[in-house]
């Protein structure tokens, strides 16, 4: 029985190594391996690639929003105009769609479903238009009845937001499958990014197993979510000021303790170290930090570094994150099948607090509990979870498992299920948006069959 348990644990470690690698695999461009208190692993592990345009900073890559707008265009019989990526967000990115995505492939792949054009026709520049806030998690009736009726009075509809504007469930099968095609077939990275991603993945794989870890312990995430655990009072005050001064972040007063208890906060670097140790990862495991600049710098990385000395990160002055974020998803689309959700983080926080309070110690008991928490988070196929029983209104929709987090069974029949269900290289990459980035609108134009000269403009 003991031998069987350790065999299972070994398999779980391998699965999680692969899965965690897909979370942030190689968000690394024009980057070196940087030493953090240990000897270099050899010349082959240090490289510099000078190909990233300097204007690509921290570009939010809103794949889900774009794919949902493709589906909305189909529902209201519209033509989609290539999106303009957000330029007003926290990171002030200036990249355009074609910098990140393969624009021509996007257009041609959707030709049988939705007409896509590169820009708004000149003759419609002065067309009548209206700004419309699409209702969150709306079904097909809402778009066919309320939104489509706007064509009677307007040629252009400007949608103020695109995050979570389409329901996760109870949509016609053809609409759900279109979302799958848009996300997993039509929307792929530009050839330059794909080539760079392959090069870096091959180089990292040549050195054996490793973990690419996206901590998401960054200034914007912590400021937006109001998470201050393990921070100094001065750091907490700084984050509060950022949140108060960011106009499009609506929630200003946040109870940090409550946020953490509900699982809404990212794990601290120290807690990540506890987690990896409990899962059985050896201290000799190489870890690449795929995130941006860790808030608080090295002072918050001391514990993780002491547990895992082979810690690598990109140099802050060599970061062009527009490509970095994209390349971070070059390894696969299955990270969401194993990534910690709010439910897992909530359970982990309860265990970690017991350690902090001295009522539990690291060791076999903690390891067993953490492994059990993640027993169903090993990448195996399963149906998407519906809402939590008893929830109503917005809370009901929020409690559902998001469509793109687990697109089964809807995506299973379009020829990509094997790549989604197995921890192997997928057909095409997928982007994941952080909680904070869901607020950032991108400009999407949608027009209904150009002959009618009606357009839906997505901000």
UniProtKB/TrEMBL annotation:
Main location: membrane
Any one Gene Ontology molecular-function term assigned to this protein's record: glycosyltransferase activity
GO biological process: fucose metabolic process
Keyword Transmembrane helix: yes
Domain of life (superkingdom): Eukaryota
Listed Pfam families: O-FucT (PF10250)
Transferase keyword on record: yes
UniProt keyword terms in alphabetical order: Carbohydrate metabolism, Fucose metabolism, Glycoprotein, Glycosyltransferase, Membrane, Signal-anchor, Transferase, Transmembrane, Transmembrane helix
A single cellular component GO annotation: cytoplasm
CDD domains: O-FucT_plant
Topology term for the membrane: Single-pass type II membrane protein
Record pathway: Glycan metabolism
Subcellular location as annotated: Membrane
Segments crossing the lipid bilayer: 272-297, 318-339
Alphabetical list of PANTHER family matching this protein: O-FUCOSYLTRANSFERASE 7 (PTHR31741:SF1), OS02G0726500 PROTEIN-RELATED (PTHR31741)
Family: Belongs to the glycosyltransferase GT106 family.
Name listed for the protein in its UniProt record: O-fucosyltransferase family protein
Lineage of source species: Eukaryota, Viridiplantae, Streptophyta, Embryophyta, Tracheophyta
